[in-house]
Inverse folding.
């Protein structure tokens, strides 16, 4: 059996040794041992009992490193704050500083669309004052096919190119070193970097955006800040039909387009017209329907008032 000595046993061992040294040795040894013990105690006190003359109330200065914000416009570190993305004037000033600083298109786009000078969450022309004006979105459409007309389900299917245009002053590059470029077509992934209208089809039952071989969407910016956004869509739309005169009936089917979240104070939709007498909706010359004949189409304006606000709407009949 192995037993480990505890602290109490250790103290008893030292006491026994001290007793043997003091009482079982000669008087000369006793005095030498006592002098040695006193000398040891004095040295110990002199080493550990030092006076601290420092001010106890004085707090130690703690320095916290705070990196300076990066000025992405000039690509240098500075103490200035980044431009306020909610102020259109500051955004324009930031874009004007792009002059002569981009050697490649990659650098130019990185600075033009960087979140420090462009915030896609904020619509164009928005300000935090009462002078904020709505952004006007021009629309046009090219219809490829009309199919799946169902009298039973009262619906039809449209395959189309849906295009929208608007001005975004934050994307102006007419003062930059790339002002000679007539337009810049962005990669389809960069659609997520730019503010786009929240247009939706009010009478749609289902919709699909084509993604073969790549997402069928286009975004293009122009020197003056004009933005073109085009995408290919397949829409299954509701069409209430009156079948009392079937099979010699005439039906009017609509495409109802509006903003989902922006009210009239934020977005106004308009049909883009080349001339006063043209309608900005074109239909493929090869369009054929087995049971129906397309006779005419026209556009109209409508405003809808809901519990969430007043919304601008455009209708194609």
């Amino acid at each position: 059996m192995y037993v480990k000595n505890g602290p109490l046993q250790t103290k008893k061992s030292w006491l026994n040794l001290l007793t043997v040294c003091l009482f079982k040795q000669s008087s000369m040894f006793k005095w030498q041992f006592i002098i040695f013990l006193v000398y040891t105690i004095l040295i110990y006190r002199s080493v550990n009992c030092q006076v601290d003359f420092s001010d106890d109330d004085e707090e130690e200065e703690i320095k916290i490193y705070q990196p300076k914000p990066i000025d992405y416009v000039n690509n240098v570190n500075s103490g200035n704050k980044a431009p306020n993305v909610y102020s259109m004037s500051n955004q324009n000033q930031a874009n004007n500083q792009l002059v002569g600083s981009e050697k490649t298109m990659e650098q130019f786009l990185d600075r033009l669309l960087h979140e420090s000078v462009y915030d896609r969450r904020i619509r164009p022309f928005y300000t935090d004052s009462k002078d904020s004006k709505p952004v006007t979105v021009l629309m046009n459409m090219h219809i490829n096919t009309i199919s799946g007309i169902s009298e039973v389900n009262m619906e039809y299917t449209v395959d189309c190119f849906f295009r929208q245009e608007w001005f975004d002053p934050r994307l102006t590059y007419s003062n930059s070193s790339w002002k000679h470029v007539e337009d810049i077509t962005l990669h389809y992934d960069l659609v997520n970097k730019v503010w786009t209208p929240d247009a939706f089809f009010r009478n749609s039952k289902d919709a699909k955006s084509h993604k073969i071989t790549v997402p069928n969407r286009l975004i293009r910016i122009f020197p003056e800040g004009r933005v073109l956004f085009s995408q290919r869509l397949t829409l299954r739309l509701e069409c209430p039909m009156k079948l009392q005169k079937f099979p010699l009936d005439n039906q009017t089917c609509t495409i109802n387009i509006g903003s989902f979240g922006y009210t009239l104070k934020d977005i106004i939709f308009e049909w883009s017209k080349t001339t006063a007498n043209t309608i900005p909706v074109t239909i493929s010359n090869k369009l054929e329907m087995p049971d129906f004949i397309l006779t005419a189409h026209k556009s109209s304006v409508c405003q809808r008032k809901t519990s969430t606000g007043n919304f601008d709407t455009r209708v194609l009949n």
Q: What stands out?
A: The radius of gyration is 41 Å. The CA atoms of residues 85 and 119 lie 6 Å apart. The first helix runs from residue 7 to 23. Residues 1-12, 51-90, 96-100 have pLDDT under 50 and may be disordered.
